[in-house]
Specification:
mainly alpha; Rossmann fold; two-stranded parallel ribbon; 21 helices
Length: 490
């Protein structure tokens, strides 16, 4: 059987993490099985669907590297791929169900349905449509239509027995039909409900496997009875478990960013994000964690998807992202870092390309996201140093720091080479002259130059800053130390 899967988001916002994982699993399953990955946009909610959201979904999928084989902007033999352009197909199949006695018009108003719901709640009964319009004859329907009522179309459910399926991930799942009720197929405005449109589209697009979140499990029995009523074979279903936040509750905005676009903006790279999303509920051998997209395309299988909820661990994402950044060729890593900096307001023309490459290289494994280049390299990217109060207070407690920094500035000013080798030689030499450990002098200089006790190698820092800025920061720190020490002593 030729595998055909689909990702069918609603364009009512950005592509969120859960949706991105669903898209990834569908994509990987198609690639692993030599199948077709279809993108379909479920935009029948006209009030909430926006062109901006459609574009955001396209951009996020492309950023992740998930190219669709059929769908918007690509085309294919099963279009159109926007549900809003498929309304005639839904009306056609709804009419066929009515003709077969498997659907009927419902004239109930929202107020009447709400009153029924409140009465059922008061009686502590299950909430379900009471079927009042199912037995209406032609005359009763004509009277209601004469009142100006517009009919929805409901499915005529056989409430006996159960509806079950063999889920690829969860095994056998069954629902008693009595809990399904006569659900709506077409609303009174002619637009389809999710379950009806989904069945029609999946059938007409020859979808063989439906891979989606387990929040859709309750929709599946309704879809299966629709397949049966229409005489169609249902696809295989695979429901993957939900993603939880670190506190064990369903992932939401209170846990931080939930959209793919937000992680892109925060400096994560697609290689790291794809790797992390794949591991949210899937494992290869329980040991291997680093995968490229190409590797995932070869080894992914639904049989290794867990039934248990996955936990969104930001530290794990940062680690994976850092690993993928580390394995990028240096020119590619520099290009991505500088592009990120430019997008966030940094003027790349201030330094030659070699300087930017050196910055990224010197920061090394401190960089787990592209934003870390800006954060960890702030000492070199900003004109003024931002002093960590704790680091500065510790310097104040040490003797003779100010004079030592002033002496170091003098030596650097007189250094003809201003190279990594000469800077290290003169710094260590001065420490020997002063009778202090080289690390003590270098630590004080590091705080003076970067504002922090933790920074890249001191001499690389000096080289990045350049002689004028090094001299100014050492002199400023020396003067400040003298002034504050005098006040404290007085």
């Amino acid at each position: 059987m030729s595998v055909r899967v689909r990702f069918a988001p609603s364009p009512t916002g950005f592509l969120h993490v859960g949706g991105a994982r669903t898209a990834l699993y569908n994509y990987l399953f198609a690639r692993a099985r030599g199948g077709v990955f279809v993108l379909r946009i479920e935009d029948t909610d006209a009030a909430r669907s926006t062109d901006e959201s459609v574009r955001a979904i396209f951009d996020s999928l492309r950023w992740l590297g998930l190219a669709w084989d059929e769908g918007p902007e690509v085309g294919g033999p099963h279009g159109p791929y926007f549900q809003s352009e498929r309304r005639e197909r839904y009306r056609h199949h709804a009419a066929a169900l009515q003709a077969a006695g498997r659907a009927y018009p419902c004239y109930c108003t929202p107020e009447e349905l709400e009153a029924t719901r409140e009465a059922q709640l008061a009686r502590k009964e299950p909430l379900a449509y009471d079927g009042r319009c199912r037995g209406l004859d032609a005359a009763a329907r004509a009277r209601l239509e004469a009142q100006g009522r517009r009919a929805a179309v409901r499915f005529a459910l056989d409430a006996a027995g159960e509806t079950a399926w063999q889920d690829v991930v969860r095994g056998r799942v069954a629902f008693r039909n009595e809990v399904l009720d006569d659900f709506v197929l077409l609303r009174s405005d002619g637009l389809p409900t999710y379950n009806f449109a989904c069945v029609v589209d999946d059938h007409e697009m020859d979808i063989t496997h439906v891979i989606r979140g387990d929040d859709h499990i309750s929709n599946t029995p309704r879809q299966i009875v629709l397949y049966e009523a229409l005489g169609w074979a249902p696809p295989q279903f695979a429901h993957v478990s939900m993603i939880l936040g670190s506190d064990g509750t369903r992932l939401s905005k209170r846990h931080g960013a939930t959209s793919v676009a937000a992680y892109h903006e925060m400096g994560y790279v697609p290689e790291g994000m794809v790797n992390f999303l794949a591991l949210l509920g899937w494992a290869y051998d329980g040991k291997t964690e680093l995968f490229t997209l190409a590797e995932l395309e070869r080894v992914f299988s639904l049989e290794r998807v867990s039934r248990n909820p996955a936990v969104f661990n930001l530290e794990k994402l940062e680690w994976l992202n850092g690993q993928h950044l580390k394995h990028l060729p240096e020119p590619e890593r520099t290009e991505r870092a500088t592009r990120f900096l430019a997008e966030h307001g940094h003027d790349l023309s201030r330094h030659p390309a070699e300087w930017w490459a050196a910055l990224v290289r010197i920061l090394g494994e401190r960089v787990r996201t592209l934003a870390d280049v800006e954060r960890c390299g702030a000492f070199a990217l900003r004109e003024a140093v931002e002093m960590d109060p704790v680091a500065w207070s510790e310097l104040l407690e040490k003797a003779a720091v100010g004079p030592r920094l002033a002496r170091l500035a003098e030596r650097i000013e007189a250094d003809a080479d201003f190279s990594l080798e000469s800077l290290e030689r003169l710094t260590r030499g001065l420490a020997t002259e002063l009778g202090v450990k080289a690390g003590e002098l270098m630590g004080a200089a590091r705080v003076a130059l970067t504002g922090s006790k933790t920074a890249p190698g001191l001499f690389e820092v000096m080289w990045l800053l350049g002689r004028p800025k090094v001299l100014a920061r050492l002199s400023d720190a020396a003067s400040r130390w003298e002034a504050e020490s005098a006040r404290a002593g007085g």
